[in-house]
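Archive record
______________

***
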Amino acid sequence: MQLRQITTCGAPTVQTTEHRSRKADRALEYRLQLCSRHKWLSRSWPGRREAHEPIGRCGTLLDHRDFDRVIASHGDQWLLSLTSHHPRDHGGDIAATLRAAHRFLARAREYTNPLGQRADITDGIVAALDHSARIAEAIEDGSAGLDGRTQLLSALSVAETIAVAARGA
């Protein structure tokens, strides 16, 4: 399970979106919790939505999907809009994607999101993407060991949280 934080909002959750596998066991793939202000974010997360009494913290995402699907989700949900880079644009090469995203942000330092809002790029996200790219490179060359994928998902989770903080989500 990968813990991701897609907002930095501290408000209590009023809506949960759950997506389960279509396989016979119907295993939980992810559970996303959002507050009333951020419920609109669930539009890009298919699944059963359930309103409930306020609980938990807004933006908490418990992601149980396999490595490749979580990587694709990072690309779809924040990396592409922030950097214009996605693994599919680099032949599925995660290290090349992250290195290109890192170079883009290191040069940009400021960007305009698809809504036309300007945001400063923090040193934290540039460093987190560099760290993520270095782990992905170590996975490719075999030096990351068995826990390399776990390290990469954790590093991307940190980068994602910094990115949402930078844009004020």
